[in-house]
Amino acid sequence: MADALPPDRLEPHDETAGRPIGRRIVLSTIAAGVAGLFVAPSLQEKWSQLLGAASQRDPTGLSGLLPNPGGFRYFSVAGSVPEKNASTYRLTVDGLVDKPTTYTLSQLGAMPQSRVTHDVVCTDGWQVDDVPFVGVPLAKILDAAGVRPDAKAVRFTCFDGVYSESLTMEQARRPDVLVATQMLDQPIPHISGGPVRLFVGPMYFYKSAKWLSGITVTDEVVPGYWEEYGYPIDGWLPGEEPAGA
Amino acid sequence: MPDLAVRRFTRAERLVHQTTLILMAICLATAAAIYFGPIAAAIGRRHVVATVHQWSGILLPAPFLLGLMSRALRLDVRRLNRFTRTDTRWLLGALRRVPHRDQVSGKFNAGQKVFASWLAGAIVVMVFTGLLLWFKFSLSGIPRAGVIAVHDLLAAAITIALAGHAYKAYTSTGG
To answer: Using the beta-carbon criterion (under 8 Å), do A21 and B82 form an inter-chain contact?
Structure first.
């Protein structure tokens, strides 16, 4: 009851007098946030290393719920993606080529293989260092199909039914561009875009289309899925742009 | 026992609170669908989810800004801003774990004032970093990793603070 309170706690006070501490809290929070933009990268690096180490020895997987865990994150633009295995998977090569071809998984496995180890960097900020990919160099597949002289670019389509990507012919022939069947020396799991995904080592990871099902040689670059939403078509990682690009 | 229910807030103020609540709920739900792998894998449709997240986020301050047309809301903002000796005493009491019902406050206690002010600042930072992320590749001088870290960590802090806010709202009976 109010009348049971000691007199000194009954002092009348004007609620709108007093010091403007609330405003100072608002401004301090904003200032701290802006300062964080510049301080966070170095702190985050240590945090990532700590979490990366912790997630290696975490059977519960709970460390994956902490902010910015080291490791891959799942993205799909489609609602659900059908699973393909060695007997149902097909890769078609068509467009401006002399010999349109359809490959099975075992046919891809019988072609010359190459191993590319590169950092995987997503535009959303996560990064996994030194990830080995194994697969057929895209250049070998293009050579086998016989690219016509008027071809300028390569378009990639995916069996999620939605995603697409593009590279110029020059980019597509780089040795660090693979039609990959292995990641981290394991067959690529469905959730990581298996059984076959594109791997474009020197570019942001959105260029490395998951669930690759079609390679079409074209006479001009057709913007891919995210590129329709403003991502650059040449998704070079910082420092990876070829001279003159 | 007479009916002691008191309307603490006007209709305009409640409308501001409810629309902000809905926008914040959409923001957090879509954030979860972008951020957590298992939820992302179950829902997919990344572009749709991201678009809903961006728009609910950028609209988050709108109900409050429109609500400033209400005199009652402006008066409550002034009450939240001003800290009196009573509030100092309240905060010291909270540190000593004095039960809130034994403490004296005006319309808002000091905890509510700190929460409201911090959340207002946090939303400004979230909208700012969110816009930087939205218009990617046009950053200059601001490290992208820093923008992502601040946006992610502050989102986690806001989630925790809102959980506390909801808990207090359901368990407190005034006083």
So the answer is: yes
Q: How many domains does chain A have?
A: 2
- Which among B83, B101, B115, B160 is the top mutation candidate for probing chain A, defined by the most A β-carbons within 10 Å of its own β-carbon? B83
Residue B150 has its nearest CB partner, among A33, A77, A78, at A33
Higher-pLDDT residue of A53, B117: B117
Of B86, B145, B146, the CB nearest to A13: B86
Fold designation for B11-171: Fumarate Reductase Cytochrome B subunit (1.20.950)
**Probe site for chain B from A16, A164, A228 (most B CB atoms < 10 A):** A16
Q: Are residues A96 and A65 in the same domain?
A: no
Q: Parse chain B into domains and list their residue ranges.
A: 11-171
B4-34 pLDDT, tens digit per residue, is 667 889 999 999 999 999 999 999 999 998 8
**What is the interface pTM, i.e. ipTM, of the complex?**
0.87
Q: Is the pTM of this model over 0.80?
A: no
Distances from the Cα of A49 to the Cαs of A45, A106, B150, in angstroms?
A: 6, 38, 18
Provide the pLDDT confidence category of residue A11 given band limits of 50, 70 and 90: very low
